[in-house]
Each structure stands twice: as structure tokens, then as C-alpha cells.
Amino acid sequence: MSNKDESTFGVMSPSECHQLLGAGTIGRIGVVVDGYPLIIPLNYAMDGETVVVRTEPGTVVARADQTRVSFQIDGFDPADRSGWSVLMRGRAQALTVEDRDELIERTRATGVTPWAPGDRSLWIRIEPADLSGRRIKPGDDLQWSLGYAAYM
């Protein structure tokens, strides 16, 4: 098999990662609970380069306040075996009444609307420490090609 028939990996630029984050609405937050990583899907929005989520007070996500977390989004196309993934690592910070009015207004203006039912009144911001993205795509010659043996 030649290299043209193999999938290729690529590193995405920070601007491409930010563009994909800005276009999305569903991601996953990674937190450590009882020494194990726990991945939770949730709705999000962006405030500049900061991820904003809403959760119910007392939940695992709420308890992530002031801890290091991961946040990931991705997309894929099984038909052509391609996809991408963006990973942000940073610190989760719950919004409180002590925060600046301007920050509270900006955070709420993101309009993130959780699909999950219940009291989702706690706003959490994930301030990025680093951001990375990867893309996988098929090689140049990836296509269905059947030799004569396929017809026998």
C-alpha cells in the first residue's frame, strides 16, 4: 500500500481550533472524580477564547470550580474516514456575585442554553491554559476500487 492510500494526521492551528469551538454548541468536559477521569457531555458557548457552560449547583461539573479540567469537541465523517478533535485544558471558575458586573453580563450574553432539565443556574467559565487540535483525513487516492476478482 502506498502512502497515498493511507490516512494522514494533521495539527490544526490555534485559529482553526478557535473557529471550530466558536461554531459548536455541544462538547465534553473532563473532570477527575474519586481519582478517575469522568467525561460529561454538555452544551456550551464561547466568550472570546473562554468556554461557558451552565450546570445545576451541587453536580460534578459544579464541583469542578477552581480545578483543572479538559474540554473537547470533535466532528467526523465515517463515510470517508475523516474527522477532527479540539482539546482545551484550563481552569473551571464558577461565576459568583463577587465577579465584575461586566464579566457577569458578558458570560450571560453568550446565551448558552442547556438541553438538560433542572436548575442550570450556575455559570462556569473554562479559562484556557492550552489549546490543541488534530485532523485525520484520507489519503489522496482513497476511493472504492474493485478489481476483477470482486465480480467473481
Description:
This protein has 152 residues and is mainly β. The chain has a domain at 26-75 and 88-128: Electron Transport, Fmn-binding Protein, Chain A (Pnp Oxidase, Chain A, Roll). It is 12% helix and 45% strand. The protein has 2 helices and 8 strands, in the order E-H-E-E-E-E-E-E-H-E. Strands 1, 2, 3, 4, 5, 6, 7 and 8 form an 8-stranded antiparallel sheet that branches. The longest helix is centred in the N-terminal third of the chain and has 10 residues, at 14-23.
Entry summary:
The protein has 152 residues and is mainly beta.
Q: Which structural traits does this protein have?
A:
single chain, mainly beta, Pnp Oxidase, Chain A, 152 residues, disordered C terminus, eight-stranded antiparallel beta sheet, 2 helices
The total of beta strands comes to: 8
User: Which geometry do the CA atoms define?
Assistant: globular
The CATH homologous superfamily of the domain at 26-75 and 88-128 = Electron Transport, Fmn-binding Protein, Chain A
Which architecture name of the domain at 26-75 and 88-128 does CATH use?
A: Roll
Radius of gyration: 20 Å
Summarize the amount of helix as a percent range: 10-25%
Structural class: mainly beta
User: How is the biggest beta sheet arranged?
Assistant: 8 strands, antiparallel
For the record, give the distance between the C-alpha atoms at the N and C termini, rounded to a whole number: 23 Å
Q: Kindly report the average pLDDT value.
A: 88
CATH topology of the domain at 26-75 and 88-128: Pnp Oxidase, Chain A
